[in-house]
Amino acid sequence: MIRNFTRRTALASLVTAVALAAPIARAETMDDMRFGDVATVKMMDKNKDGMVSKAEFLDMMGQLYDMKAKKMKSKGGVMSSVEFDEFAKYLRAGA
Protein backbone atom coordinates (compact mmCIF):
# COMPACT_ATOMS: atom_id res chain seq x y z
CA MET A 1 0.00 0.00 0.00
CA ILE A 2 2.79 2.43 0.87
CA ARG A 3 4.62 1.34 -2.26
CA ASN A 4 1.61 2.26 -4.48
CA PHE A 5 1.28 5.59 -2.71
CA THR A 6 4.97 6.32 -3.34
CA ARG A 7 4.65 5.38 -7.02
CA ARG A 8 1.56 7.55 -7.47
CA THR A 9 3.25 10.45 -5.69
CA ALA A 10 6.35 10.07 -7.85
CA LEU A 11 4.24 9.87 -11.02
CA ALA A 12 2.22 12.93 -10.03
CA SER A 13 5.42 14.85 -9.33
CA LEU A 14 6.84 13.85 -12.72
CA VAL A 15 3.67 14.87 -14.56
CA THR A 16 3.66 18.23 -12.76
CA ALA A 17 7.32 18.84 -13.57
CA VAL A 18 6.79 18.06 -17.26
CA ALA A 19 3.71 20.28 -17.42
CA LEU A 20 5.59 23.18 -15.84
CA ALA A 21 8.55 22.72 -18.15
CA ALA A 22 6.39 22.67 -21.31
CA PRO A 23 6.84 25.74 -23.48
CA ILE A 24 4.22 28.43 -23.16
CA ALA A 25 2.14 28.92 -26.32
CA ARG A 26 3.53 31.71 -28.47
CA ALA A 27 1.49 34.34 -30.25
CA GLU A 28 0.69 33.56 -33.87
CA THR A 29 1.09 37.09 -35.26
CA MET A 30 3.12 40.12 -34.32
CA ASP A 31 -0.13 41.83 -33.24
CA ASP A 32 -0.50 39.20 -30.50
CA MET A 33 3.11 39.41 -29.31
CA ARG A 34 4.36 41.18 -26.24
CA PHE A 35 7.21 43.65 -26.67
CA GLY A 36 9.54 41.29 -24.83
CA ASP A 37 8.83 38.59 -27.43
CA VAL A 38 9.60 40.95 -30.32
CA ALA A 39 12.60 42.76 -28.86
CA THR A 40 14.96 39.84 -29.28
CA VAL A 41 17.99 39.46 -31.50
CA LYS A 42 16.35 36.46 -33.16
CA MET A 43 13.28 38.50 -34.15
CA MET A 44 15.15 41.63 -35.24
CA ASP A 45 18.15 40.02 -36.95
CA LYS A 46 16.81 39.85 -40.51
CA ASN A 47 20.11 38.89 -42.17
CA LYS A 48 20.87 36.25 -39.49
CA ASP A 49 24.39 37.50 -38.73
CA GLY A 50 23.84 37.29 -34.97
CA MET A 51 23.81 41.07 -34.55
CA VAL A 52 21.15 43.76 -34.69
CA SER A 53 21.97 46.75 -36.86
CA LYS A 54 20.44 50.17 -36.37
CA ALA A 55 18.38 49.62 -39.52
CA GLU A 56 17.06 46.27 -38.22
CA PHE A 57 16.20 47.83 -34.86
CA LEU A 58 14.43 50.80 -36.44
CA ASP A 59 12.54 48.49 -38.81
CA MET A 60 11.19 46.48 -35.89
CA MET A 61 10.29 49.62 -33.93
CA GLY A 62 8.49 50.95 -37.02
CA GLN A 63 6.51 47.71 -37.27
CA LEU A 64 5.59 47.97 -33.58
CA TYR A 65 4.54 51.60 -34.01
CA ASP A 66 2.35 50.70 -36.99
CA MET A 67 0.83 47.72 -35.17
CA LYS A 68 -0.06 49.76 -32.09
CA ALA A 69 -1.32 52.74 -34.12
CA LYS A 70 -3.62 50.40 -36.07
CA LYS A 71 -4.86 48.76 -32.87
CA MET A 72 -5.60 52.19 -31.35
CA LYS A 73 -7.21 53.31 -34.64
CA SER A 74 -4.86 56.29 -34.91
CA LYS A 75 -5.61 58.56 -37.87
CA GLY A 76 -3.15 59.53 -40.58
CA GLY A 77 -0.19 57.54 -39.27
CA VAL A 78 0.24 59.76 -36.22
CA MET A 79 -0.46 59.23 -32.53
CA SER A 80 -1.90 61.75 -30.12
CA SER A 81 0.00 62.34 -26.89
CA VAL A 82 -2.43 60.01 -25.09
CA GLU A 83 -1.92 57.28 -27.71
CA PHE A 84 1.84 57.72 -27.59
CA ASP A 85 1.79 57.44 -23.80
CA GLU A 86 -0.06 54.13 -24.20
CA PHE A 87 2.55 52.98 -26.76
CA ALA A 88 5.37 53.98 -24.39
CA LYS A 89 3.73 51.99 -21.57
CA TYR A 90 3.68 48.97 -23.91
CA LEU A 91 7.41 49.36 -24.53
CA ARG A 92 8.26 49.84 -20.85
CA ALA A 93 6.05 47.05 -19.56
CA GLY A 94 7.01 44.52 -22.18
CA ALA A 95 3.38 43.49 -22.32
List the helices and strands and how they pair.
Blueprint: H1 2-21, H2 35-38, H3 41-44, H4 54-71, H5 81-93
Helix and strand pattern: HHHHH
Total domain units: 1
What is the number of strand segments? 0
Low-confidence stretches: 22-27
β-strand percent reads under 5%
Describe the structure.
With 95 residues, the protein is mainly alpha-helical. It has one domain (25-93). The chain contains 5 helices and no strands. It has helices at residues 2-21, 35-38, 41-44, 54-71, 81-93. The chain is flat and about 65 Å long. The N and C termini lie far apart (49 Å). The relative contact order is 0.10. Mean pLDDT is 75; it is low at 22-27.
In short:
The chain has 95 residues and is mostly helical.
What attributes does this structure have?
single chain, 95 residues, mainly alpha
